[in-house]
Amino acid sequence: MRIPQFTAPGWIRRLTGIRADRRGNVAMMFALAAPVVALIVGFGIDLTRHQVARSAAQDSIDSSALAAAASGTSDIDELTELVNAYLAANVDPKQINTGYTVDVRYENETELNVSLKGDIDAYFGGLFGMSKLPVNVSAVAQRGTADAVELALVLDNTWSMSDSAGDGQTRIQALKAAARTLTDALMLKDDGRVKIGVVPYAEYVNVGTGNRGQTWVSVPADYSTTSNPSPRVCETRTTRSVCTGGVRGTCTRYNDGVPEQYACWTTPQTCTTQTVAPYEYCTGGGNPTTTNYRWYGCVRSRNSGSLRLNDSLPETPYVGFLGTSQRCLNPILPLNETKATVTSTIDALVVNVGSYRPNTHIPSGLIWGVNVLSPTAPFTDGRAYSVGNTAPRKILVLMTDGENTLRFQASDGQHLALSSNATTAASQLTQTNRDVSDICVYAKSQGIEIYTVALAVDSATARTMLQNCATDADHYFDAADSASLVQSFADIAASINAVRLVK
Length: 503
Known about the structure:
- The chain is of the alpha+beta class and 503 residues long.
- It has helices at residues 10-70, 76-90, 171-186, 339-347, 362-373, 422-445, 460-469, 482-496, and strands spanning 101-107, 111-121, 132-142, 149-156, 164-166, 169-170, 194-201, 205-206, 217-218, 223-227, 233-244, 247-255, 258-267, 270-283, 289-299, 318-323, 333-336, 393-400, 406-408, 415-417, 449-455, 476-479, 500-501.
- Strand 5 and strand 6 (169-170) form a beta hairpin.
- Helix 6 (422-445) runs parallel beside helix 7 (460-469).
- It is elongated.
- 32% of the residues are buried.
- The mean pLDDT is 88.
């Protein structure tokens, strides 16, 4: 049986023909468009390479600007050399053509502006008249504090600072150089952004005699006493003490940890009472003696409750005491925005006045560092505490070259020598060290950032006290000599004065 053949209708046959024709047209169109598509894809690869190269160049120029700015130098040739050296070591020639140019400018004593101009080869761009694609990047690194800074330099100028720090310098000379290094790095301009106060401390602090009339200090009036000598009385004697033998030599004593040599009898003399020819022996007589008592700016610690450990109740005054000679050294400089004033105060530091060679009471220096930063009396130059914020940033730098050698007397706020009894002295020293720790805890609770610097401190207890006082481990510095002391202050300045990109 034959199966009849199916014959498609005419309209279906015509449609099939049209589809066959269209396939031919598409193939022809694709063949014509393929080169254009390839060029577009290729140029897209060029653009991707360009973006990668530009990103890498921006990273390198950012890092070079930060590295050069962090160097501390202001010499434009040295800055340019640092930038070029960094770029030479970090720019990948596979990403950017050699022969790029670099421009370095140092502006306003704070901003380092670095720019790079270069290019990459375009693999496909040449077909569009673009054989190279430009790679131009720039960065601005700013030196200087990001926020307003109020800083108190609490500096040890006790007698032990007259000892050697190595390199032919005394410790006080090394401290002056170190403190100037920090000041130079922070006070780039006298624009009020950075204010520095200086608190020299020894047995007591000197708040300045010009503050005598302030409500926060109570000072009695200066006065004089005159003593009349006893009447002159003479008598005839026929005996006298006669000493023979003995050996004169050299003995050693310690003042604030500094050894001092003096002449002494290393072997005692033998003394006897001998009969001699009669002679006249007189006592008394002479002229009246006047003794003057006046205020030199020295104040004791506040002795009411725990007020010696904080700046609360500013209406409770410090007590200034009178003396026949000075018992405190350089006066405090409250927060000041003028670099020349700060540096002249540092340069004027002394470790003794006449025969007065002071010992060490760290708590009194520390609490006056807090007072300098405090917004309330005694000094009101500091802005309000800003716990958790950065404006202003309040910083205290405590430097010492030894441990405490004095104790606080609660009855009147005096700072007295430790007991000659070893057990009692150890207890008294523990309390003085505890006062240091309590003041540090209080300062940090008010948002004050604390750096501590130990210079040639032998006592492990004292070093631990300073480590615990600091804000954290990175805020503690252990300096062995003058060079490391200067470096410690430079590192503190770098930490405070963090370099940052602003563009």
